[in-house]
Design brief:
The complex is a heterodimer of chains A (about 350) and B (about 375). In chain A, helix 7 links the parallel strand 6 and strand 7. Helix content of chain A is about 35%, strand content about 20%. Chain A is of the alpha/beta class and about 350 residues long. In chain A, the strands form 3 sheets. A 7-stranded mixed β-sheet of chain A has the order 3-2-4-5-7-6-12, with helices on both faces. A 5-stranded mixed β-sheet of chain A has the order 9-11-10-13-14, sandwiched between helices. A two-stranded antiparallel ribbon of chain A has the order 1-8. Chain A is globular, with a radius of gyration of 20 Å. By secondary structure, chain B is an alpha/beta fold. Chain B is built from 16 helices and 7 strands. In chain B, the strands form 2 sheets. In chain B, strands 1-2-3-7-6 form a 5-stranded parallel β-sheet, sandwiched between helices. Chain B has a two-stranded antiparallel ribbon with strand order 4-5. In chain B, helix 3 runs antiparallel to helix 13 and helix 3 packs across helix 14. The longest helix of chain B is centred in the first third of the chain and has 26 residues. Classes of the chains: A alpha/beta (about 350), B alpha/beta (about 375). Chains A and B meet through helix 4 and helix 5 of A and helix 7, helix 8 and helix 16 of B. The complex binds thiamine diphosphate and magnesium ion. Magnesium ion binds next to strand 4 of chain B.
Chain lengths: ~350, ~375
């Protein structure tokens, strides 16, 4: 795999539309975890200032094997098995960024990010602002997140909203291997801190990666299925669930458009508003609890931006406002295609 | 925590340079200093103290929202700051006014923080590597450690040339010793053998909480548990603070790994202008420490070396001039433009901050001349 990977174009800088047209296509099938791995390898090969830091990311390759082989390839000075301390990882990454490095931190699981919360929200997010632009913080924080893996407490959460609420951070989440490969490189190329939420239930699902292709702008949303009557918006693993729901709805005679959010902060409203102007109906789906969430934010903003196009209130289908339950109940907690279809029916009934 | 038998002291309470086994190791660092260096130490302590008094006055007169006094801690700060070499990086907490002064920072930046005109105040890259103040207790210790990890990765320590090799010094207080971040910083520093000095100013209080609540053992002894050599110094002795820190930084830059220094000192003033220390500490305790004033001690030493009234009078005039210049420029500090709220939230363009900046500009201009 590494042969093809090294032929990939470097990541386009954040916000730019496309990289140069490829001279030959190199499509590889790989799971999402491998695509992140390939993107990390590419970024490290392109820029010696890129470092990886995290718990168990060296010889083990991370608990999800996302960094597998990278320490062997780039050495322990560029792939650091850190002490077991999340605040320490993020805090020292800030110091390394001040020194000119571009650290990529791995948080082992979503529920273990909170010991690093101060360093992320009060330090990393504000550092450029406090320096009045004289210091940049090109730090990426990778977070495997979300449910569907039947794991124990603290291993299936979706903490995006805590960080989306914080000015100074950017948040993205790829749903496909191709996006994972390109978006991780764009995140590393960004001079702002980027929280990179990896939908861990999708880690093992294969998809095509266009290694010689080009990156879509990091902070763009994307229509992944066209439809005319209802718009569904979501991110990460929820995209697969929304596509299932759209398929089932089509069988019942309802045409559903599906949008992959890709970026949670900032949110690219262009495709969402254009879709709502066509369908008149919007449903936002996420695994995270709905109260004060990215879903609430989208509902409020689209109501402001497309009020006269709406035929029904924007509906939210989210995890419940209860702690993520024991694994035997996760399928009840997490929105599935049926819960989305129930919302489709409610929306159509207005 | 009281002095221990191991506390390094070079100047006795009445300003006499100590000789003998305990001092011998450090006296060469002092011997290497010239008259001008010693006079500079004194000048930096006196000017900082006068600045501190002026800022406290400005606060009482309603010109600053808050003031954070450094009075009493000048020797620990001036000695350690002069121990740092030009290429070193210094990460302060929020009381290190004398360190800023030594590094030539325009301390009007500190005034701006407390008057409410900025969250930053200076550019570390243009301020002899004096980084920004940090208010979240101990969080800067990790930034300093990460920075020192970067020096090591760059191969810019342990080359054998102390004028090239870089090191980091990070400042914090006794209360900070209980924070997770400080303990994580010690772990990372030990793991990666960073070129760095942890400089604790034990001023005996964390707001109203005595150091005995933070620790039942002398704090410098804790670092051994992390695999980092620790040493305790009389922080009201500017020469000892200088010598011990110079030795520690030079060892760290030479590749010997991190060092921990506990400087015993005392916060003569309140924690901040909002604090009332009479509620938690006795006047007798305060007076014991007032009697150990670091500036008086050093002045005695300089006089025994032959410095006369003229020098001390000159420094006093310089301090007065400095204070009146700060007062004048404080009163001239304007209100920052509203654009500043949005301009540096991100380094790269961001649709939300751009839209809100434009909205606010429109909104404000909608009031026309009535504003
Ligand atoms: C994380 C955090 N908790 C609480 C505070 C409020 N606070 C400000 S200073 C201080 C005491 C700090 O004591 P110490 O570290 O000894 O430093 P000193 O003020 O004595 O210089 C406290 C509790 C804070 N700034 N940050
Ligand atoms: Mg203290």
């Amino acid at each position: 795999m590494s042969d093809t990977v090294t032929r990939a174009e470097p990541a386009a800088p954040t916000g730019s539309a496309t990289a140069p047209a490829p001279t030959e296509s190199a499509i590889a099938q790989m799971p999402l975890a491998k695509a992140v791995n390939a993107g990390l390898r590419q970024a490290m090969a392109n820029d010696p200032r890129v470092l990886l830091m995290g718990e168990d990311i060296g010889p083990l390759g991370g608990v999800f094997r996302v960094t597998e082989g990278l320490q062997a390839e780039f050495g322990p000075r560029r792939v650091l098995d850190t002490p077991l301390a999340e605040s320490g990882i993020v805090g020292t990454a800030i110091g390394l960024a001040m020194r000119g490095y571009r650290p990529v931190c791995e948080i082992q699981f979503d529920g273990f990010i909170f010991p690093g919360f101060d360093q992320i929200t009060s330090q990393l997010a504000k550092m450029t602002n406090r320096h009045e632009g004289q210091v940049q913080m090109p730090v990426v924080i990778r977070v495997p997140y979300g449910g569907h893996i039947g794991a124990v407490e603290h291993h299936q959460e979706s903490p995006e909203a805590y960080f989306a609420h914080t000015p100074g951070l950017r948040l993205v989440s790829p749903s496909t291997p191709n996006d994972a490969f390109w978006m991780i490189q764009e995140a590393i190329a960004s001079n702002d801190p980027v929280m990179f939420f990896e939908p861990k239930s999708r880690y093992w699902h294969k998809g095509p990666v266009d290694l010689s292709g080009s990156a879509a702008p990091l902070h763009s949303s994307r229509v992944v299925r066209t439809g005319t009557e209802v718009t569904l918006v979501g991110h990460g693993a929820m995209v697969t669930v929304m596509l299932q729901a759209a398929e089932l709805a089509a069988a019942e005679g309802t045409s559903v458009e599906v949008i992959d959010l890709r970026s949670l902060s900032p949110i690219d409203y262009g495709p969402i508003v254009a879709s709502v102007q066509k369908t008149g109906r919007l449903i936002v789906a996420s695994e995270a609890p709905g109260f004060v969430s990215v879903s609430s934010e989208i509902a409020a903003t689209v109501t402001e931006m497309a009020f006269y196009s709406l035929e029904a209130p924007v509906l939210r289908v989210t995890g419940f406002d209860a702690p993520f339950p024991a694994a035997k109940l996760e399928t009840v907690y997490l929105p599935d295609a049926d819960r989305i279809l129930e919302a489709v029916d409610r929306s159509m009934a207005y | 925590m009281a002095e221990t038998v191991e506390t390094v002291q070079l100047l006795s309470a009445d300003g006499v340079l100590q000789q003998g086994a305990a001092a011998d190791e450090y006296l060469p660092f002092i011997d290497a200093l010239g008259d001008d260096d010693l006079k500079r130490f004194h000048r930096d302590m006196v000017v900082t103290r006068r600045f501190d008094v002026e800022a406290a006055n400005l606060q009482r007169q309603g010109q600053l929202g808050l003031w954070v006094p450094s009075m009493g801690q000048e020797a620990a700060q001036v000695g350690s700051a002069h121990a740092a070499r030009d290429q070193d990086h210094l990460f302060p907490a929020y009381r290190e006014h004398a360190v800023a002064m030594v590094r030539g920072v325009d301390v009007l930046g500190i005034i701006g923080l407390l008057r409410g005109t900025t969250h930053g105040g200076w550019n570390p890259a243009e301020s002899k590597n004096f980084h920004l103040y940090t208010l979240v207790i101990a969080s800067q210790t990790l930034h300093a450690t990460g920075y020192a990890m970067g020096i090591a990765l760059d191969g810019l320590h342990a080359t054998g040339d102390p004028l090239v090799d870089e090191a980091v010094i990070v400042y914090f207080g006794d209360g900070s010793m209980s924070q997770g971040d400080l303990n994580e910083a010690l772990v990372f520093a030990a793991s990666y053998q960073t070129p760095q000095v942890f400089f604790l100013q034990n001023n005996h209080w964390a707001i109203s909480v005595p150091v005995s609540v933070q620790s039942r053992i002398p704090l410098y002894q804790r670092s051994a548990g992390f695999g980092i050599p620790g040493i305790q110094v009389d922080g009201n002795d500017v020469l000892a603070s200088f010598a011990v820190t110079r030795q520690g930084l030079d060892a760290a830059r030479a590749g010997a790994g991190p060092r921990f220094i506990e400087a015993l000192t005392y916060r003569i003033g309140a924690h901040t202008s909002s604090d009332d220390p009479t509620k938690y500490r006795t006047d007798a305790e305060l007076q014991r420490w007032v009697a150990k004033d670091p500036i008086i001690r050093f002045e005695k030493y300089l006089r025994t070396r032959g410095e006369g009234d003229a020098f001390f009078a000159d420094v006093a005039v310089e301090a007065e001039d400095f204070a009146s210049d700060i007062r004048r420029r404080t009163l001239e500090l304007g209100t920052p433009s509203t654009d500043k709220m949005f301009d540096h939230v991100y380094s790269e363009p961001h649709p939300v901050t751009s839209a809100q900046k434009a909205w606010l500009a429109d909104y404000e201009s909608s009031f026309g001349d009535d504003q």
